[in-house]
Amino acid sequence: MRILCLPYTHTLSHISRPLAIAAELRARGHDIIFAGDSPKDHFIRSEGFDVLPAYQVEPDILFNRIRQGKLQFVSDDELYRLIASDRDLYRQVQPDLVLSDGRFSAPLSAGLDGIPQAAIVNVSSTEYRALPYIPFFEWLPEKLVKRDGSLGKSLDRFNLALEMLVFDNAATVFKKLSRKFGLRRTVTATNCLAGNDLTLLADIPEYFPTRNLPADYHYIGPLTWQSPLPPPAWWPPKNDGKRLVYFTMGTTWMGGSFTTLYKRLQQEGLTAIIATGGQAQGLETIEGEVYVEEFVDGDLVMAACDLVVCHGGNGTIYQALQHGKPIVGIPTIPDQQFNMRRVKALGVGEALAPKTFADHPEKLFALARQVAEDSRYRDHAKRLQGQLASLAPAKKAADLIEARFGRN
């Protein structure tokens, strides 16, 4: 098959997941072409794939809307432009299949042009999630409403129905275009990241449960980035018996200042490795205290560290759990807040509000010590590590794609 991959290439998580599947499909003889338009496209090219130009909404615009709680996260004009860009690519590539990750125009454009479409997505961005995205009733005390009791579950179902109704009616352009194009599947703001024909859930049921899951939705497990980067020149870090903490805030963190973090670290008696994701300049490595890199092999560092401090990104959380490491998160967008609620519920870490970190950075380090020193967090993380070790997500995704779309 000729497969066109449409990820949102401004974030590494949306690049790494289709890259892992694309590598598996390429090894099976399929022709894979990517499209994007960001400085991070070089990660795709470095794996030997072509990247065609494609319009994308700038991350500052998109993530600022999300952080501000704007339910209409994409304008009508932007969506029309995305669809036009998709269709130009279809005419150029003539794909047998479109595989998207974070491209919310893909189900509309692929449906309009009659091209099969699969998508990689997290359970939190589907209409089949079993847990509310924004828990309206979280303020109710546990002694009054048991979360796993019948009343708690009823409130969750009401919560889910209400939040989807509000979201879909705040961004009605998806439903309007579905009707205009005469699509067989109605695309909404809630399901616009899913696939028309196949949806690959990059999660595990214990972490993100679902309800009423249809036959074309499949859990495959987390697809985490396998970095091609060599170890830094200073590796391994010298920590002289101090706890080693890995700080990684992805490539879109808006939760605080790396400079504040850097300065505070020198007062805390920890050894830290900071991956800035290219979001900070002028921070120098101080041997034995703080090691700074733009990008680093996360698996290498996580295997050596005692604790992971992150922005609550799904990929980073799963990567930490694959190494059995507890987590402290500073989430800045609803997806990350949703992730960190699950981290807390599963007993593998704790969260800190961005404003708390900005106003009182010392509280981050107090929380980090608490999580690192309490063996229960590590024990729970180790249990999930064992479960994740048995999965082969890229292989399972490729098997599903070939079974659904492959030519005989």
From TrEMBL:
Residues 277-400 form the Erythromycin biosynthesis protein CIII-like C-terminal domain. One of its GO terms (molecular function) is hexosyltransferase activity. Gene3D superfamilies: Glycogen Phosphorylase B. Keywords: Transferase. It comes from the Bacteria. PANTHER family: GLYCOSYLTRANSFERASE (PTHR21015:SF22), UDP-N-ACETYLGLUCOSAMINE--N-ACETYLMURAMYL-(PENTAPEPTIDE) PYROPHOSPHORYL-UNDECAPRENOL N-ACETYLGLUCOSAMINE TRANSFERASE 1 (PTHR21015). This is UDP glycosyltransferase.
